[in-house]
Amino acid sequence: MLVADRIIALGLIALSAYFMWHATVLPIGWNAMTGGPGGGAFPFWLSGIMMLAALSILLRSFRAAPDENRGPFFDRVMLPAVLKVTAALIITIAVIPWLGTYIALAVFVFWYVKIYGRHSWGLAITLSVGIQLFLFFFFEATLKILLPKGITEPLFFPLYAMFF
Amino acid sequence: MDILALLADGFATSLSPLNLLIVILGVTAGLFIGAMPGLGSVNGVAIVLPLTFIVPPSSAIILLAAIYYGAMYGGAVSSILLGIPGASTAVATTFDGRPMAQQGKAGLALIAAAVASFVGGTISVVLFTVFAAPLADVALAFGPAEEFALVLLAFTTFVGLGGDDVAKTIVMICLGLVLSTVGLDLISGQPRLIFGDLPGFYSGISFLVLAIGAYGVGEILYTIEGSRTSPTVTPARITFKELGAGLRAMNRMWKTMSLGSFLGFFVGMLPAAGATPAALMAYGVARQTSKDPDSFGKGNIEGVAAPETANNAASTGSLLPMLTLGIPGSPTTALLLGGMVMWGLVPGPMLFIEQPDFVWGLISSLYTANFAAVLINIALIPLFVWALRMPFAVLCAIVMVLCIVGGFAPSQKLHDVWLIVAFGVGGYLLRKADYPLAPLVLALVLGPLMEKSFRQTLIAEQGNVMAFFERPISAIFLALAFVFFIWPLLGLLFSKDHKDHPHVPSKRPKFLKIDKL
To answer: Is B60's Cβ below 8 Å from some Cβ in A?
Structure first.
């Protein structure tokens, strides 16, 4: 917990430094012409405050009594599950432009319910097909929002002809 | 009676077949979302928001408000049947709701929760109706200086009353404000904070992306980690005999329920406080004023009624500053505010003048939503018992898919979906390290208003910073903001007890004096 607290505080300090560096592209000082601060002032000085606050969190973690905050940051038993789901999510989004939303999400739901959740074949297949049908009729047929199709685009031409 | 005429007009809007259907749909969805452990009103609204493009803007807001309402009712269901709060707002309901369920009185507890929610909701909606128009009238006099002071005041309430670690709260407020400046500078139109010159950042970071990331993906990750053991569902059957007994029991608790309603309404208006502390406070007050305080925590029906009136009243209370001043009173209302802006309805006093049909339609829909919620809640109790047995993996998979597609739909850019994953993982880690997420979301929503009003004032006053202090209303707000900001410091000075544990972040707001919870 203590180590994680320090790492997160360090990360936030780095993030605010990065924001400050980016904010200097626009003037960060007082604009004498119009009155009031320049375009970069708001992000720059707020990042500065954020950095100071994060720094104070980091510094006081060194003053903390040894018995405080000693519990583990992650639940060791459940951490692999969290990592697996995060990885599956990232892979799913990464293949969307290539395989299309429908294949990517069907595989994701099937993986989640059947392989990760260890539920029955029937439930997994019903759910992954059912969600696709809902997405198509809700987003594409009703709202006319086209989801990315990737290489599956030609398969949808007959459906487009029917619904648009 | 001007208000009654306006309200009658509002009912003409909210009782139209479409809006009535929407209220029933929203309340039912909200009840289920609230009943699911891990999903509360804020998660429900974040996930459902992109789906509301299907209806006209005013109906969309009514739908979201109905979900918000339904979720407040639903939170009690899993508090009683599972012993884990369905939403953080229903934490106090577990104290007596769970013991009641274990004594075989789950049905009675559920009825008490539903009726108490209805009473809390109704009293607070009446208060809302009375206060809305006068408050909007006052707010009409606000210029940019007052707007800036008010936003600053909203943020400082998090520091003073939020109850989270002060340094961590400040970090989250600043992070949200900085993220809100990404994109084009409001005044000069130049791009700023365009990380790596990615075109996706030119249009800024949408509040929806942050909300779906933090409250959708992040929440699921958080729940997965905490789901090592699956809880057991206590069965509950509702008979008419129990319903009658429940109503008779509730009839003896008018004092507790009205106290809870007023408390909830006014605490709910504060941006930092909201429904969770309101419910805890109402529980504490009910126990202290009770003739038999020892029976609390062992299955006293009053201990279910008090927090449930308060959390429903608080959800209505938090709508009041959002609608009249444009300052949301809770993370969920921050999302509602963001949604309204997205649809071109700018909350604030002008809304009451320009869109009276919408405003009063929404207010009157709170009455219908309340009525629908209590009926649907009691009628669907068997269905909740069944739904709570739903495999967790199914819920997670559906929510994740809705996060991906819902994040893509508004902007139709995969860039936003990637940001959602980043915010999801980031929000999950920050939440584990006790960083509060509510000020982050609020800051992202209010950031543009804060910067614009600050710079507008200075341009109008030719750079005279004293302008903020020369206008009376703005000066009062700034003085209050200052008090809230130094509040934790005062607490540190005056309480010796606090000095011994300066690093333990207290989960409960400091102004709550409830012993032995």
So the answer is: no
Q: Which domain range does residue B480 map to?
A: 2-500
- Which member of B167, B424, B425 has the closest CB to residue A56? B167
Residue of chain A whose Cα is closest to the Cα of B462:
A35
pLDDT digits (tens, 9 = 90+) for A29-62: 776 666 678 788 889 999 999 999 999 999 988 8
Element spanning A145, H or E:
none
pLDDT digit string, tens, across residues B62-87:
999 999 989 989 888 888 888 887 77
In this complex, the residue of A26, A46, A53 whose CB is nearest that of residue B167 is: A53
pLDDT of residue B511: 38
Distance CA B108, CA B100 (A): 8
Angle at CA of residue A153, ends A149 and A154, nearest 5°: 170
Distance CA B463, CA B460 (A): 8
Start-end of H helices in chain A: 2-23, 41-63, 79-110, 121-135, 157-163
pTM given for the model: 0.86
B239 Cβ under 8 Å from any chain A Cβ? no
Q: Considering only alpha carbons, which residue of chain A is nearest residue B173?
A: A50
Residue from A116, A139, A140, A144 whose CB has the most chain B CBs within 10 Å, to mutate: A139
Res A98: pLDDT: 92
The reply to whether B228 falls in a domain is: yes
With an 8 Å Cβ cutoff, is B408 touching chain A? yes
* Residue B510 located in a structural domain: no
**A17 confidence band (pLDDT: 50, 70, 90):** very high
Count of C-beta atoms within a 10 Å radius of residue B225: 18
If phi > 0 it is left, if psi is from -120 to 50 it is alpha, else beta; for residue B412 that is left
> B464-500 b/e with 16+ CB inside 10 Å = b?
eeebbeebebbeebbebbeebbebbeeeeeeeeeeee
Å from A158 to nearest chain B CA? 22
Spacing of C-alpha B74 from chain mean position: 14
At B9, the pLDDT band (50, 70, 90 cuts) reads confident
Report if residue B360 sits inside a domain. Answer: yes
Closest C-alpha to A147, from A110, A103, A109, A89: A103
Q: Based on the structure, what is the number of domains in chain B?
A: 1
| Residue B448 amino acid letter | P
Q: What is the mean pLDDT of residues A50-77?
A: 80
ipTM of the complex: 0.92
Q: Provide CB contacts within 8 A for B436, sequence distance 6+.
A: B158, B162, B164, B168, B169, B172
B153: nearest Cα among B495, B476, B488: B476
For the beta carbon of residue A2, count every other beta carbon within 10 angstroms. 15
What CA–CA distance (Å, rounded) separates A127 from A113? 8
Q: Mark yes or no for CB contact B193/A23 under 8 Å.
A: yes
For residue B255, pLDDT beyond 70: yes
Is residue B35, in this structure, part of any structural domain at all?
yes
User: pLDDT tens, B493-509?
Assistant: 665 444 444 444 444 44
* Contact flag B455-A36 (C-beta cutoff 8 Å): yes
Residue with tokens 């320009």: B354
Q: Mean per-residue pLDDT for B279-303?
A: 88
A4-22 CB burial, b ≥16 within 10 A, e <16: ebbebbeebbebbeebbeb
